[in-house]
Amino acid sequence: MAGEQSTVEPGTDVLIRKVDSHLATLRGGLHGPELELAERLARCLRELVLCTAQASAADRGQVRAAVHYFVLRRESRGRLLSVRSLAAAERVVDRVARQLGRLDLLADLGRDRPAPDDALPLGDALLR
């Protein structure tokens, strides 16, 4: 019996599972606009992971960094992300989407406003 060959890169499934697992955790503690933001971020990240599966290592690295920023809860106090952390993750995800030319994946509801730090490299933006 012949198996179907997968065209998805090996790291893709891992990143999507990380996003989905983190979102499941957030659903237990967030409500209203915060939960909606977390779900938008997860949706954007999943799509970015999929659309860069065959892209350059640099593009995949940017997406991987955005996933880790969302998942690692850098500014958390306790188990769940603070609202401030979600806003920071939103900025990172939107920056990556802009840099990859995927404006359709912006998580930010105010899509018409320019991002003030788009000129900075992603690494510098992550350190802000």
Short descriptors:
128 residues, 5 helices, mainly alpha, disordered N terminus
Brief sketch in words of this structure:
With 128 residues, this protein is mainly alpha-helical. The protein is built from 5 helices and no strands. α2 runs antiparallel to α3 (57-71) and α3 runs antiparallel to α4.
Describe the structure.
With 128 residues, the chain is mainly alpha-helical. Helix content is 59%, strand content 0%. It contains 5 helices and no strands. It has helices at residues 10-27, 32-51, 57-71, 83-99, 122-127. It is globular, with a radius of gyration of 15 Å. It starts with 9 loop residues before the first helix and ends with a helix. Residues 1-6 and 111-116 have low confidence and may be disordered.
